[in-house]
Amino acid sequence: MWCFSRLPLRIGHASRRHGDRRFVATVVSGNKTARLVKQRLAQQVEQMQTQFSGFRPGLVVLQVGDRDDSNLYISSKLKAAAEIGINAKHIRLPSCTSEDQVLRAVLALNEDPEVHGLIVQLPLDSEKPMDQELITNAVSPLKDVDGLSCVNAGRLSRGELRDCFLPCTPQGCMELIAQTGVPVSGQNAVVIGRSKIVGAPMHDLLLWNHATVTVCHSRTADLPLQVSRADILVVGMGRAEMVRGEWIKEGAVVIDCGINYVPDPSRSSGKRVVGDVHYASANERAGFLTPVPGGVGPMTVAMLMQNTVISAKRSLQDRTRT
Ligand code: NAP
Ligand code: L37
Q1: Ligand 1 center from residue 236 Cα (angstroms)
Q2: What angle do helix axes 168-180 and 296-321 make, rounded to 10 degrees?
Protein backbone atom coordinates (compact mmCIF):
# COMPACT_ATOMS: atom_id res chain seq x y z
CA MET A 1 0.00 0.00 0.00
CA TRP A 2 1.32 3.42 -0.89
CA CYS A 3 1.89 5.49 2.24
CA PHE A 4 2.52 9.24 2.26
CA SER A 5 5.02 9.13 5.12
CA ARG A 6 7.27 6.87 3.05
CA LEU A 7 7.64 9.32 0.21
CA PRO A 8 10.71 11.31 1.37
CA LEU A 9 12.47 8.06 2.29
CA ARG A 10 13.20 7.40 -1.36
CA ILE A 11 15.98 9.97 -1.22
CA GLY A 12 18.68 7.77 0.18
CA HIS A 13 20.00 4.63 1.71
CA ALA A 14 20.36 6.19 5.16
CA SER A 15 16.71 7.18 5.28
CA ARG A 16 15.02 4.36 7.08
CA ARG A 17 11.70 4.32 8.85
CA HIS A 18 11.95 3.32 12.45
CA GLY A 19 9.08 2.10 14.60
CA ASP A 20 7.56 -0.53 12.36
CA ARG A 21 11.02 -1.28 10.82
CA ARG A 22 9.86 -0.95 7.24
CA PHE A 23 12.60 0.12 4.88
CA VAL A 24 12.56 1.42 1.40
CA ALA A 25 15.43 0.72 -0.89
CA THR A 26 17.12 3.37 -2.98
CA VAL A 27 16.25 2.71 -6.61
CA VAL A 28 19.34 2.22 -8.77
CA SER A 29 18.26 3.45 -12.17
CA GLY A 30 19.76 1.76 -15.20
CA ASN A 31 17.94 4.18 -17.48
CA LYS A 32 19.69 7.14 -15.90
CA THR A 33 23.15 5.57 -15.77
CA ALA A 34 22.85 4.24 -19.33
CA ARG A 35 21.95 7.73 -20.54
CA LEU A 36 25.11 9.17 -18.96
CA VAL A 37 27.28 6.42 -20.45
CA LYS A 38 25.78 7.00 -23.91
CA GLN A 39 26.35 10.78 -23.66
CA ARG A 40 30.01 10.19 -22.80
CA LEU A 41 30.41 7.75 -25.68
CA ALA A 42 28.77 10.16 -28.15
CA GLN A 43 31.40 12.78 -27.24
CA GLN A 44 34.19 10.26 -27.76
CA VAL A 45 32.82 9.23 -31.15
CA GLU A 46 32.56 12.88 -32.19
CA GLN A 47 36.23 13.36 -31.29
CA MET A 48 37.22 10.29 -33.31
CA GLN A 49 35.27 11.61 -36.29
CA THR A 50 37.02 14.97 -36.15
CA GLN A 51 40.47 13.52 -35.59
CA PHE A 52 40.23 10.70 -38.13
CA SER A 53 38.22 12.34 -40.92
CA GLY A 54 34.76 10.86 -40.63
CA PHE A 55 35.79 7.61 -38.92
CA ARG A 56 32.91 5.83 -37.17
CA PRO A 57 32.96 2.75 -34.95
CA GLY A 58 31.20 -0.16 -36.66
CA LEU A 59 29.00 -2.77 -34.98
CA VAL A 60 27.27 -5.77 -36.54
CA VAL A 61 24.48 -7.66 -34.80
CA LEU A 62 24.07 -11.07 -36.40
CA GLN A 63 20.76 -12.78 -35.72
CA VAL A 64 19.57 -16.20 -36.73
CA GLY A 65 15.79 -16.47 -36.91
CA ASP A 66 13.15 -14.09 -35.66
CA ARG A 67 12.53 -14.30 -31.90
CA ASP A 68 10.31 -11.48 -30.61
CA ASP A 69 12.47 -10.83 -27.55
CA SER A 70 15.69 -10.74 -29.60
CA ASN A 71 14.03 -8.37 -32.09
CA LEU A 72 13.19 -6.01 -29.23
CA TYR A 73 16.70 -6.07 -27.74
CA ILE A 74 18.32 -5.65 -31.15
CA SER A 75 16.16 -2.63 -31.91
CA SER A 76 17.31 -1.06 -28.58
CA LYS A 77 20.92 -1.70 -29.60
CA LEU A 78 20.45 -0.14 -33.05
CA LYS A 79 18.73 2.88 -31.53
CA ALA A 80 21.51 3.39 -28.96
CA ALA A 81 24.15 3.05 -31.69
CA ALA A 82 22.42 5.69 -33.81
CA GLU A 83 22.29 8.08 -30.82
CA ILE A 84 26.03 7.68 -30.23
CA GLY A 85 27.18 7.79 -33.85
CA ILE A 86 28.12 4.12 -34.11
CA ASN A 87 27.56 2.62 -37.54
CA ALA A 88 25.42 -0.39 -36.64
CA LYS A 89 24.21 -3.05 -39.03
CA HIS A 90 21.66 -5.76 -38.32
CA ILE A 91 22.09 -8.96 -40.33
CA ARG A 92 19.22 -11.38 -39.96
CA LEU A 93 19.73 -14.85 -41.37
CA PRO A 94 16.62 -17.02 -41.79
CA SER A 95 16.05 -19.84 -39.31
CA CYS A 96 16.72 -22.35 -42.12
CA THR A 97 20.37 -21.18 -42.36
CA SER A 98 22.88 -23.97 -41.80
CA GLU A 99 25.63 -23.86 -39.18
CA ASP A 100 28.17 -23.70 -41.95
CA GLN A 101 26.53 -20.63 -43.47
CA VAL A 102 26.44 -18.86 -40.11
CA LEU A 103 30.11 -19.66 -39.57
CA ARG A 104 30.99 -18.32 -43.00
CA ALA A 105 29.10 -15.09 -42.27
CA VAL A 106 31.03 -14.69 -38.99
CA LEU A 107 34.39 -15.32 -40.65
CA ALA A 108 33.66 -12.77 -43.40
CA LEU A 109 32.73 -10.13 -40.79
CA ASN A 110 35.92 -10.93 -38.86
CA GLU A 111 37.84 -9.83 -41.97
CA ASP A 112 35.87 -6.63 -42.58
CA PRO A 113 37.98 -3.66 -41.37
CA GLU A 114 34.89 -1.46 -40.97
CA VAL A 115 33.48 -3.84 -38.33
CA HIS A 116 34.97 -3.24 -34.88
CA GLY A 117 32.34 -5.11 -32.91
CA LEU A 118 30.49 -8.28 -33.87
CA ILE A 119 27.87 -10.02 -31.78
CA VAL A 120 25.76 -13.06 -32.46
CA GLN A 121 22.48 -12.42 -30.68
CA LEU A 122 21.63 -15.39 -28.49
CA PRO A 123 19.74 -17.64 -28.29
CA LEU A 124 19.95 -18.80 -31.92
CA ASP A 125 16.51 -19.42 -33.38
CA SER A 126 17.39 -22.14 -35.84
CA GLU A 127 15.53 -25.02 -37.43
CA LYS A 128 18.79 -26.87 -38.00
CA PRO A 129 21.13 -28.27 -35.34
CA MET A 130 23.57 -25.56 -34.40
CA ASP A 131 26.56 -25.56 -32.09
CA GLN A 132 26.22 -22.23 -30.27
CA GLU A 133 29.71 -22.57 -28.77
CA LEU A 134 31.31 -23.11 -32.15
CA ILE A 135 29.64 -19.97 -33.46
CA THR A 136 30.44 -17.67 -30.50
CA ASN A 137 34.03 -18.93 -30.58
CA ALA A 138 34.33 -18.18 -34.28
CA VAL A 139 34.00 -14.44 -33.56
CA SER A 140 37.46 -12.88 -33.55
CA PRO A 141 38.46 -12.15 -29.92
CA LEU A 142 39.45 -8.66 -31.13
CA LYS A 143 35.85 -7.97 -32.23
CA ASP A 144 34.03 -10.03 -29.60
CA VAL A 145 32.29 -7.10 -27.89
CA ASP A 146 29.93 -9.54 -26.14
CA GLY A 147 32.96 -11.08 -24.40
CA LEU A 148 31.53 -14.56 -24.90
CA SER A 149 34.32 -16.27 -26.84
CA CYS A 150 36.45 -18.69 -24.84
CA VAL A 151 39.50 -16.43 -25.24
CA ASN A 152 37.80 -13.44 -23.61
CA ALA A 153 35.94 -15.56 -21.03
CA GLY A 154 39.21 -17.34 -20.16
CA ARG A 155 41.04 -14.07 -19.65
CA LEU A 156 38.27 -12.79 -17.41
CA SER A 157 38.23 -15.97 -15.36
CA ARG A 158 41.98 -15.52 -14.74
CA GLY A 159 41.52 -11.94 -13.64
CA GLU A 160 43.09 -10.43 -16.78
CA LEU A 161 40.39 -7.79 -16.86
CA ARG A 162 42.22 -5.20 -18.93
CA ASP A 163 43.03 -7.55 -21.77
CA CYS A 164 39.54 -8.71 -22.61
CA PHE A 165 36.07 -7.55 -23.54
CA LEU A 166 33.81 -7.87 -20.52
CA PRO A 167 30.35 -9.38 -21.13
CA CYS A 168 27.77 -6.60 -21.31
CA THR A 169 25.21 -7.63 -18.69
CA PRO A 170 27.67 -8.35 -15.83
CA GLN A 171 29.66 -5.24 -16.73
CA GLY A 172 26.43 -3.24 -16.53
CA CYS A 173 25.72 -4.77 -13.12
CA MET A 174 29.16 -3.70 -11.89
CA GLU A 175 28.43 -0.13 -13.05
CA LEU A 176 25.15 -0.16 -11.16
CA ILE A 177 26.86 -1.49 -8.02
CA ALA A 178 29.45 1.29 -8.37
CA GLN A 179 26.58 3.81 -8.53
CA THR A 180 25.49 2.80 -5.03
CA GLY A 181 28.85 3.81 -3.55
CA VAL A 182 29.02 0.46 -1.71
CA PRO A 183 32.53 -0.98 -2.12
CA VAL A 184 32.77 -4.47 -3.60
CA SER A 185 36.07 -5.40 -2.01
CA GLY A 186 35.68 -7.58 1.06
CA GLN A 187 31.90 -7.98 0.76
CA ASN A 188 29.97 -11.23 0.64
CA ALA A 189 28.53 -11.40 -2.86
CA VAL A 190 26.01 -14.00 -3.98
CA VAL A 191 25.21 -14.63 -7.64
CA ILE A 192 22.18 -16.70 -8.60
CA GLY A 193 22.77 -18.33 -11.98
CA ARG A 194 25.88 -19.71 -13.68
CA SER A 195 25.19 -19.12 -17.37
CA LYS A 196 27.97 -18.04 -19.72
CA ILE A 197 26.26 -14.73 -20.44
CA VAL A 198 25.25 -13.64 -16.91
CA GLY A 199 26.13 -15.76 -13.85
CA ALA A 200 29.62 -17.08 -14.62
CA PRO A 201 31.16 -13.77 -15.78
CA MET A 202 29.37 -11.99 -12.91
CA HIS A 203 31.14 -14.33 -10.50
CA ASP A 204 34.48 -13.55 -12.16
CA LEU A 205 33.99 -9.79 -12.10
CA LEU A 206 32.97 -9.74 -8.44
CA LEU A 207 35.81 -12.09 -7.51
CA TRP A 208 38.50 -10.02 -9.24
CA ASN A 209 37.05 -6.91 -7.66
CA HIS A 210 37.82 -8.71 -4.39
CA ALA A 211 34.41 -9.80 -3.14
CA THR A 212 33.97 -13.22 -1.55
CA VAL A 213 31.62 -14.86 -4.03
CA THR A 214 29.08 -17.67 -3.78
CA VAL A 215 27.36 -18.89 -6.95
CA CYS A 216 23.93 -20.53 -6.64
CA HIS A 217 22.17 -22.61 -9.29
CA SER A 218 19.24 -24.98 -9.69
CA ARG A 219 20.85 -27.62 -7.42
CA THR A 220 21.67 -25.21 -4.59
CA ALA A 221 20.29 -26.82 -1.44
CA ASP A 222 19.02 -23.82 0.49
CA LEU A 223 18.68 -20.75 -1.71
CA PRO A 224 17.06 -18.49 0.94
CA LEU A 225 19.95 -19.23 3.32
CA GLN A 226 22.59 -18.33 0.72
CA VAL A 227 20.69 -15.16 -0.24
CA SER A 228 20.47 -14.09 3.41
CA ARG A 229 24.29 -13.97 3.57
CA ALA A 230 24.65 -11.54 0.67
CA ASP A 231 25.81 -7.96 1.09
CA ILE A 232 25.62 -7.80 -2.70
CA LEU A 233 23.12 -10.03 -4.51
CA VAL A 234 23.02 -10.40 -8.30
CA VAL A 235 20.18 -12.49 -9.69
CA GLY A 236 20.08 -13.95 -13.22
CA MET A 237 17.93 -17.06 -13.08
CA GLY A 238 14.98 -16.48 -15.39
CA ARG A 239 12.36 -17.26 -12.71
CA ALA A 240 9.71 -14.55 -12.36
CA GLU A 241 9.77 -12.88 -8.91
CA MET A 242 11.25 -15.95 -7.22
CA VAL A 243 13.62 -14.18 -4.83
CA ARG A 244 11.52 -12.93 -1.92
CA GLY A 245 12.28 -9.87 0.17
CA GLU A 246 12.21 -11.95 3.37
CA TRP A 247 15.34 -13.82 2.18
CA ILE A 248 17.34 -10.62 1.71
CA LYS A 249 19.76 -9.18 4.27
CA GLU A 250 18.69 -5.74 5.45
CA GLY A 251 20.47 -3.01 3.52
CA ALA A 252 21.90 -5.32 0.82
CA VAL A 253 22.59 -4.21 -2.75
CA VAL A 254 20.22 -6.18 -4.99
CA ILE A 255 20.78 -6.27 -8.75
CA ASP A 256 18.01 -7.99 -10.72
CA CYS A 257 18.98 -9.14 -14.25
CA GLY A 258 15.77 -11.09 -14.81
CA ILE A 259 13.52 -10.30 -17.76
CA ASN A 260 10.34 -12.38 -17.54
CA TYR A 261 7.05 -11.81 -19.27
CA VAL A 262 3.99 -12.58 -17.17
CA PRO A 263 0.34 -12.40 -18.23
CA ASP A 264 -1.38 -9.12 -17.36
CA PRO A 265 -4.90 -8.73 -18.73
CA SER A 266 -4.98 -5.08 -17.62
CA ARG A 267 -2.37 -4.22 -20.30
CA SER A 268 -3.18 -3.83 -23.96
CA SER A 269 -0.28 -6.19 -24.75
CA GLY A 270 -1.76 -8.74 -22.31
CA LYS A 271 1.59 -9.08 -20.53
CA ARG A 272 4.15 -7.20 -18.47
CA VAL A 273 7.82 -7.60 -17.70
CA VAL A 274 9.04 -8.51 -14.20
CA GLY A 275 12.42 -9.44 -12.75
CA ASP A 276 13.63 -12.52 -10.90
CA VAL A 277 13.24 -10.60 -7.63
CA HIS A 278 9.88 -9.89 -6.02
CA TYR A 279 10.18 -6.11 -6.14
CA ALA A 280 7.64 -5.03 -3.51
CA SER A 281 8.97 -7.29 -0.74
CA ALA A 282 12.64 -6.72 -1.70
CA ASN A 283 12.01 -2.98 -1.55
CA GLU A 284 11.35 -3.32 2.18
CA ARG A 285 14.64 -5.11 2.91
CA ALA A 286 17.28 -4.06 0.40
CA GLY A 287 19.36 -0.91 0.75
CA PHE A 288 19.60 -0.56 -3.02
CA LEU A 289 17.47 -2.23 -5.66
CA THR A 290 17.38 -2.18 -9.46
CA PRO A 291 13.96 -1.95 -11.12
CA VAL A 292 12.71 -4.11 -13.98
CA PRO A 293 12.28 -2.65 -16.54
CA GLY A 294 14.75 0.26 -16.43
CA GLY A 295 17.52 -1.49 -14.50
CA VAL A 296 20.06 -3.93 -15.92
CA GLY A 297 18.50 -4.08 -19.44
CA PRO A 298 19.45 -0.56 -20.57
CA MET A 299 22.91 -1.04 -19.03
CA THR A 300 23.46 -4.17 -21.15
CA VAL A 301 22.86 -2.06 -24.22
CA ALA A 302 25.08 0.81 -22.98
CA MET A 303 27.96 -1.58 -22.21
CA LEU A 304 27.75 -3.07 -25.69
CA MET A 305 28.17 0.43 -27.08
CA GLN A 306 31.10 1.04 -24.73
CA ASN A 307 32.85 -2.16 -25.80
CA THR A 308 32.35 -1.21 -29.46
CA VAL A 309 33.89 2.22 -28.92
CA ILE A 310 36.84 0.63 -27.06
CA SER A 311 37.36 -1.80 -29.94
CA ALA A 312 37.24 1.02 -32.51
CA LYS A 313 39.78 3.02 -30.48
CA ARG A 314 42.11 0.02 -30.43
CA SER A 315 41.87 -0.30 -34.20
CA LEU A 316 42.75 3.39 -34.55
CA GLN A 317 45.75 2.93 -32.27
CA ASP A 318 46.90 0.02 -34.44
CA ARG A 319 46.41 2.16 -37.53
CA THR A 320 48.56 5.01 -36.20
CA ARG A 321 51.24 2.57 -35.02
CA THR A 322 51.71 0.96 -38.44
P1 NAP B 1 19.88 -19.35 -18.21
O2 NAP B 1 20.95 -19.63 -19.20
O3 NAP B 1 18.58 -20.07 -18.31
O4 NAP B 1 20.50 -19.61 -16.77
C5 NAP B 1 19.71 -19.55 -15.62
C6 NAP B 1 20.57 -19.90 -14.42
O7 NAP B 1 19.73 -19.83 -13.26
C8 NAP B 1 21.15 -21.32 -14.47
O9 NAP B 1 22.47 -21.32 -14.00
C10 NAP B 1 20.22 -22.10 -13.56
O11 NAP B 1 20.86 -23.17 -12.89
C12 NAP B 1 19.81 -21.03 -12.56
N13 NAP B 1 18.51 -21.37 -11.97
C14 NAP B 1 17.37 -21.64 -12.63
N15 NAP B 1 16.39 -21.94 -11.76
C16 NAP B 1 16.93 -21.85 -10.53
C17 NAP B 1 16.44 -22.06 -9.22
N18 NAP B 1 15.17 -22.42 -9.01
N19 NAP B 1 17.27 -21.87 -8.20
C20 NAP B 1 18.55 -21.49 -8.39
N21 NAP B 1 19.09 -21.28 -9.62
C22 NAP B 1 18.29 -21.47 -10.66
O23 NAP B 1 19.52 -17.79 -18.21
P24 NAP B 1 20.43 -16.50 -18.50
O25 NAP B 1 20.65 -16.33 -19.95
O26 NAP B 1 21.59 -16.49 -17.58
O27 NAP B 1 19.41 -15.36 -18.05
C28 NAP B 1 18.95 -15.25 -16.73
C29 NAP B 1 17.93 -14.14 -16.65
O30 NAP B 1 18.55 -12.92 -17.01
C31 NAP B 1 16.75 -14.30 -17.61
O32 NAP B 1 15.60 -13.74 -17.01
C33 NAP B 1 17.15 -13.47 -18.80
O34 NAP B 1 16.05 -12.99 -19.56
C35 NAP B 1 17.87 -12.34 -18.11
N36 NAP B 1 18.85 -11.63 -18.94
C37 NAP B 1 18.78 -10.30 -18.88
C38 NAP B 1 19.68 -9.54 -19.55
C39 NAP B 1 19.59 -8.08 -19.40
O40 NAP B 1 20.22 -7.36 -20.11
N41 NAP B 1 18.82 -7.60 -18.42
C42 NAP B 1 20.66 -10.13 -20.35
C43 NAP B 1 20.73 -11.53 -20.39
C44 NAP B 1 19.81 -12.28 -19.67
P45 NAP B 1 21.49 -24.43 -13.67
O46 NAP B 1 22.80 -23.96 -14.21
O47 NAP B 1 21.65 -25.44 -12.60
O48 NAP B 1 20.51 -24.80 -14.71
N1 L37 C 1 24.96 -8.56 -25.80
N2 L37 C 1 22.96 -9.34 -25.04
C3 L37 C 1 24.03 -9.55 -25.79
N4 L37 C 1 24.23 -10.65 -26.51
C5 L37 C 1 23.29 -11.60 -26.48
O6 L37 C 1 23.50 -12.71 -27.18
N7 L37 C 1 21.19 -12.42 -25.65
C8 L37 C 1 22.16 -11.46 -25.71
C9 L37 C 1 22.03 -10.28 -25.00
N10 L37 C 1 20.92 -10.05 -24.24
C11 L37 C 1 20.24 -8.92 -24.36
O12 L37 C 1 20.40 -8.18 -25.29
N13 L37 C 1 19.42 -8.67 -23.35
C14 L37 C 1 18.69 -7.54 -23.17
C15 L37 C 1 17.67 -7.63 -22.28
C16 L37 C 1 16.87 -6.53 -22.00
C17 L37 C 1 17.12 -5.33 -22.64
C18 L37 C 1 18.15 -5.22 -23.53
C19 L37 C 1 18.94 -6.32 -23.79
C20 L37 C 1 16.29 -4.12 -22.38
O21 L37 C 1 16.55 -3.08 -22.90
N22 L37 C 1 15.25 -4.27 -21.55
C23 L37 C 1 14.39 -3.18 -21.22
C24 L37 C 1 12.98 -3.41 -21.65
C25 L37 C 1 12.43 -4.78 -21.39
C26 L37 C 1 11.00 -4.97 -21.94
O27 L37 C 1 10.19 -4.06 -21.77
O28 L37 C 1 10.74 -6.03 -22.49
C29 L37 C 1 14.50 -2.94 -19.70
O30 L37 C 1 14.21 -1.82 -19.28
O31 L37 C 1 14.89 -3.87 -18.98
Answers
A1: 4
A2: 110
Assess whether 142 and 182 both reside in one domain. no
Answer whether residue 312 is part of any domain: no
Residues 62-106: pLDDT tens digits? 999 999 999 999 999 999 999 999 999 999 999 999 999 999 999
Which secondary structure element, helix H or strand E, spans residue 234, and what is its range? strand 232-235
Q: Is 180 in the pocket of ligand 2 (CB under 6 A)?
A: no
CATH number of the domain enclosing 224: 3.40.50.720
Q: Which one of the listed residues 38, 77, 143, 249 is annotated catalytic? A: 77
**pTM passes above 0.85:** yes
- Determine the residue of 219, 257, 278 to mutate for testing ligand 1's pocket, defined as the one with the most ligand atoms within 8 A of the Cβ atom: 257
CB distance 166 to 205 below 8 Å: yes
**Nearest CA among 146, 139, 39 for reference residue 84:** 39
